Amino acid sequence: MQLTSFSYLVFFLIVSSVYFLFPSKYRWTWLLLSSYVFYGLWNVNSIGLLLIVTITTWYSGYLLDTTNKISKKSNQSVRQKGILAVCIFVNIGILILFKYSNFAIYNLNRILRIGHIPAIQFTVNWIMPVGISFFILQALTYTFDIYRGKIIPEKNLLKYALFVSFFPQILSGPIGRAKNMLPQISSSHSFDFDRIKHGLWRMLWGFFQKMVIGDRLSIFIAPVFDDPVVSQHGGILNWIAMIFFGLQIYYDFAGYSNIAIGAAQVFGYSIPVNFLRPYFSKSVVEFWKRWHISLTSWFRDYLYIPLGGNRVSKTRHAVNILVVFLVSGLWHGANWTFVVWGLLNGLYQLIELSMKPVLQWIAPKRAFRLDSFGWKSLRVLSVFFLINFAWIFFRSRTIHEAFGFIRGLFYFNPQIFLGDSLYQFGLDRINMQILLIGLVISIMISWLQRTGSLCEKIDHQPFWFRWAVLLTGIFAILLLGIYGPNVDTSQFIYTKF
Amino acid sequence: MTKKLVSAILFSVLLYYSFQMVNDMLFIKTEANAAKDLVLEPKNSIDVFFLGTSHVYCGVNPLEIWKQTGIASFSLVTNRQPIWASYLLLKHSLKHQKPAVVFFDVLGATDYIEGLMESDRGIHATHLAMDPIPLSFSKIVDVLQIDEIKNKQEMLFPVIYHHRRLLENELNFNDLLYPFSRNRNIQKGYVLSFKTEPQERSAPHPTQSIHLHPTAEKYLKKIIELCREENIPLILFKTPAPSSDNLLMQLNGIGELAAKFDIPWIDFNRLVDQIHLDYSTDFVDGGHLNVFGAKKVSAYFSQYLQENFSLKDRREDPKYAFWNDDALHYDNRLNLQTTTFFSEYIRRLDDPHLISVITFDQSVMDHQEYFQEGKQRCEVESSEIKNSSNGLICVIDAEKVMNSTSGYFIHYANDTIFNVALGISEDTKSSILINQKEQSLNMAGVNIVVYDKDTQTVLDRVAFLPTDELQAIRDPSEVNP
Predict the structure, then answer these.
(1) Interface mutation vs chain A, best among B10, B167, B170, most A CBs within 10 Å
(2) Where a domain ends, among A190, A222, A252?
(3) Domain boundaries, position A108
(4) Does A6 contact B167 at a Cβ distance shorter than 8 Å?
(5) Residues A181 and A122 in one domain
(6) Co-location of B272 and B249 in the same domain
């Protein structure tokens, strides 16, 4: 059940209506049941795996707490580390087994081929459970935080099960934290009209981002990226496709995140935002603080800092950054393209960090004002280009194709702007115009969001204005959205991870 | 909080109606949009339903039945209507009308069904029948219960299926105005066709029978059950058509089922001689009757209804006065193109569904008395024609007259522009452009172009020459130089 389908809307309508009929104290039970039904509708066989992840992380939390209470101090640390290690081993093991087995076998066979050793004739044919990369990381925050003594264990396994399986989040996050989510499950959520309204507004905006902008962009991208003949000689087409993909992945994932956050808001749950206008970042470091925030902060808290963060030698710091981005790349998919994408972003950060003292030294001498509009714009554009360039590896199916695409960037073909050549790649003139209008609206909304919540700003408008905006939004999605029979763009990019 | 809830409810109502409006704009309109057309008829005003596929909308003419008996009937038909859609359409229509009799054409209950199950054709055909029905709780329940409708979301929210039409430029001005249009279907579901294609008569009826397709049987029984629940007599029939042995054996099977349920069964393939059907003149193609064939089948139905049911003759009932108007307009559609008498022709233009453009040139002055009726209808004096430089233009729109002696006139109606200009050149003495396309015969005397507002087509183009015979010309090559 895709989040942009009518089935999801009907499901959501039923779940949210019944939710408020339940006594406040037991509303979470209905959400738990609904979340398991939702997940089961994707693949009923994956429910077992969800249960394993839920039970192992919850039980580890229980053991960690018990160890803390009954063990002598000398034994405590060792036992706790052991419990944590087993929990990580089981859960990350599950992730590796489902996600990376074939990748590992493939690469091992390549090595074996060099030594003329017979290849391993085995492939894993299991269907990767949807959302596995997200809910495992989410569940592990519980074990990690108990280990660190930041939270106390949740005694009720069923409440914990809701934390792991909460249906708005389970497919693609935002990856929640136990310390934020568990207290919310235990607290009561009243029927708050304004909160519900704002949640629905956010969902509507998410649908617009995904269906009107994101999916429209994907129509142009596929024929350019997926056809080597086009991509190796695309020239301006490649530049457009590169930028379009950078925008698509943003609108696709930000759209999803808004639908998820909005849905949670309707139930009274607060999930932190996942994107903060990332393409307005003035540095790559800043970009990664504003892009997929729930994942980058997870890596920061549970990988980067345990590795020593920046409180180590410069070389070790650089290695830490590269390790985090390497893992982040692999997390996105079992393919060398993701590894290169991750390392490239790590490299950007290293270059940026090494340039920082130089710029700080030059700036006062040359009277540069790095915060002037001109320099800020240049920095935003540079970051935008660098990030988009890295996305080439993210989007390409192989490293070879990615380099072919990069070669195609240097192909000189300005004549593409003459005539209708640009409209031969899935998006005709009217669709390009709709896309442009959609992007302008999106930029305007980003601009308005800089100074506070847009929902509250709309609340201050007269009712006829609010209704007009709502109706326009709903019918813009219904009439201009890319969906319907024989349209295969509705899957969110991140549900594949 | 109460204020906010009221506001939310009001917004939901607004959203619902906006949604219906968008749906009405988007769905594919044909000459027969059964469910929507029926809603525009006054509630509980129809006495007889004819249900079925295109074979019915070509083969049964409710206005012929009206003219002969005064019985108000309506064809609830859509193209390739699947039997499950027939069932739903009937169920939905019974909320609006309480007919005394239902006739169901059984083509949908034959192996015709196989081409519609789980196919794009079937989905499209189901949409044609179901889309004009507004979203309601009962529609949701009905669609959910029909196993043969696989894409239930699309059937309930046709915008999913049709929204691409907006960007693919398939919508026209009439689509956009459709939600606001209250135009009744004048022909009550009948689709007029003059085309003739001779057909081979079917071989003699085989005696064997074939059992019905299980899905067809399931829905045929549902239709029977529904009519019994509503206490409405049901009659099964099949319009005449050249048929294979296999189809005829299936019809035998349906006859047996009808007998089992004690339902009258009319197989017109067995009544060909009785109704004097002529295979060389009465068919449009291998399955559909033309206007002449439909007249014969409708005459049979008229007689059948009179003999078997005591239905009211409503021709004198003031509530049904618009049926007489509709019949007149149908008559015009049928006969205008063959009318050759000027005075009769002019009388036929008094039809609210027509726009008539008439031009008089000064040559009519020599035969003034013959054109008298035309001048009166156009409310012009002979002197006005005489004093005009190139002649006089008259436009009659919905029985209202507008005329001009200036030699140039523009009329705009129904998203259509009529440009009329006199004396532009030797070849365009009396130019009548409809949406920039020349329609006038540009002859001397009186030129007339008649436009049908409902079908948005030119119904007739004719010239009456300034001779004592007032010869009606439809083909300029007929005139000797």
Answers:
(1) B167
(2) A190
(3) 21-190
(4) no
(5) yes
(6) yes
Q: Is residue B69 part of a domain?
A: yes
What's the gap in Å between the CA of B165 and the closest CA on chain A? 9
Q: Answer whether B163 sits within 8 Å of A478, measured CB to CB.
A: yes
CA distance B10 to chain A (A): 10
Q: In this predicted structure, what is the pLDDT of residue B40?
A: 82
Between B317 and A117, whose confidence is greater?
Answer: B317
Among all residues of chain B, which has the CA nearest to that of A192?
B1
Residue B159 sits at the chain A interface (C-beta within 8 Å): yes
- Residue A174: inside a domain: yes
pLDDT of B481 higher than 50: no
B155 and B278: one domain?
yes
B394 beta partners: B358, B403
CB-nearest to B14 from A6, A431, A467 is A467
B453: its two tokens? 């507002």
Asked if A46 and A151 sit in the same domain, the reply is: yes
Evaluate whether residue B183 is within a structural domain: yes
Query: Tens digit of pLDDT for each residue in A219-277?
Result: 999 888 888 888 888 889 999 999 999 999 999 999 999 999 999 999 999 998 899 99
Beta bridge partners of B398: none
- The two tokens of residue A204 are 């509507």
**A241 shares a domain with A182:** no
Interface predicted TM-score (ipTM) of this complex, two decimals: 0.77
d(CA A485, CA A358): 56
Per-residue pLDDT at A492: 62
CA–CA gap between residue B442 and residue B89 (Å, rounded): 48
Query: What pLDDT, on a 0 to 100 scale, did the predictor assign at position A493?
Result: 65
Domain boundary pick from B272, B301, B325: B325
Angstrom distance (rounded) from CA B188 to CA B237: 19
User: At a CB cut-off of 8 Å and minimum separation 6, what does A187 contact?
Assistant: none
Closest residue by Cα to residue A454 from A435, A439, A436, A469: A469
Last residue of a domain, which of B293, B325, B357? B325
User: A489 pLDDT exceeds 60?
Assistant: no
Query: Same domain, yes or no, for A108 and A247?
Result: no
**Cα B278 off chain centre by:** 24
Say if residue A174 is in the same domain as residue A267: no
Query: How many other β-carbons are positioned within 10 Å of the β-carbon of residue B280?
Result: 11
Chain A residues whose CB is inside 8 A of the B22 CB are: 475, 478-479
Cα(A348)–Cα(A386) distance, integer angstroms = 8
Nearest by CB to residue A430, choosing from B8, B151, B167, is B167
Q: A479, A487, A490: best mutation site toward chain B, by most B Cβ within 10 Å?
A: A479
Query: Per-residue pLDDT tens for A358-380?
Result: 877 777 776 667 778 888 899 99
Strands (E), B261-382: 265-267, 354-360
Please name which of B245, B246, B241 lies closest in space to residue B212, comparing C-alpha atoms. B246
Whether A163 and A204 map to the same domain: the answer is no
- Identify the contact set of chain A against chain B, taking CB-CB distances under 8 A: 5-7, 193-194, 197, 430-431, 434, 463, 467, 470-471, 474-475, 478-481, 483-485
B332: in domain: no
Domain count, chain A: 2
- Give me B216's structure tokens: 């067809």
Residue A280 lies in a domain: no
| B468 is a domain residue | yes
- Structural domain containing residue B426: 339-478
Say whether both A90 and A222 belong to one domain: no
Residues A207 and A169 in one domain: no
* pLDDT of the residue at A441: 95
